[in-house]
Amino acid sequence: MKEQQRKFRLVDGLLIAMMVLPMLAAIILQVLTKPASEGVSITGARIFFSIPMPLMPLVITEAQVNTWLVMISITGLCLFLTHGIRENKRGFRQMAAEWIVEKLDGLVRDNMDPVFHSTYAPFIGAIMALSVFSSLMTLFGLFPPTSDVNVIAGWGILVFILITKNKLKAGVPNYLKGFTEPFALMLPMNIISEVATPVSMTFRHFGNVLSGSVISALVAWALSGASNALLGWLPGVLGDIPFLQIGIPAILSAYFDVFSGCIQAFIFAMLTMLYISSAYPGESIAAREQRKKREPAMAR
Amino acid sequence: MLELAIGIILGCCALGAGCAMIAGIGPGIGEGNAVGKACEAIGRQPESKGSVTSTMIMGCAIAETTGIYALVIAILLIFVAPNILVGVLLRAIGQ
Questions:
Q1: Exposed, middle or buried by CB within 10 Å (0-12, 13-18, 19+), for A27?
Q2: ipTM, 2 decimals?
Q3: pTM (global) more than 0.90
Q4: Which of B57, B58, B68 is nearest residue A203 as measured by Cβ atoms?
Q5: Residues of B numbered 26-65 whose beta carbons fall under 8 angstroms of chain A's beta carbons: which are they?
Q6: Is residue A120 a part of any domain in this protein?
Q7: Segments forming the whole domain that contains residue A197
Q8: What pLDDT, in 10s, does the model give residues A45-69?
């Protein structure tokens, strides 16, 4: 028994290292590669290197590297919470894991069609966790992958594919006919509204996170200027310290990074659920099942 | 002459960004409406505070979308467009 406990502790240590080390790696990578900048600097994701490809070079940016590090970190967290689960003896970690799974299942059950209950909870949870942890990376001073439009556009395209797949379940003719409703002249409008769904989801999430980081950078820059002008008369080193920069950016960060990041993740997951659920042609599928059931009876 | 042209490009980009942010009025009014109604609902039925609040935050975030579009366009106009436009100008006059 003692031997077993010690082995568990070693595994715990390894998994915690799996959670923490990617973040440390990201911080070290940023310290090594970030050029020193003067004043206000608002840039996109930095490009580490590019691999030549037939059509266009494949560019490896900070956003991609940070996304992979977040994914490793989340995997470590999940394994840490769920390994060594026992039926009768519950520890704190098992409680936390069960709470998360129950809340997620409840959310999916509240907002989606009954067909999706068993299959879509992991997908929704994955998107939510990835979004939340990516946005929270700003707390370490790292580049959040969610403020790069390419990352969110990938999620938007993924959701669009799922919506289209569920719409196609009504059959291809019905899907194509859906574009000409309520009358044929609405065809261009319907196509635009179909494309607008992933675009609006992408820009909503990306714009919120990006605006937070831009406003934070501008406020920090303005505060350093203001403290230079107001307190610059203090003698010696005291005049150089930007006193106004202490504390005030933290309040902004609490709103823009923590609150806004979590809310946007929730909204992205919520809209994913609602769009997928409303794309599913439940009524026509039920009608078809009904017809299939009736036909053998008629033949008899 | 070149300085004047580049100055016009930069000034117009800044003006366009400012004009784009007029769109902030819409989400402001809309979210104010939503929060006011939510307060009324909570005042009438205090026991439904949780669901009203979560629905309100959801609605606010969706009403925010048009404002976010304007913000994205303004950020593009300030940080991305000047470089591209000045490049186009320089290529057009062959420098």
A1: middle
A2: 0.77
A3: no
A4: B68
A5: 57-58, 61-62, 64-65
A6: no
A7: 146-299
A8: 788 888 888 888 888 888 889 999 9
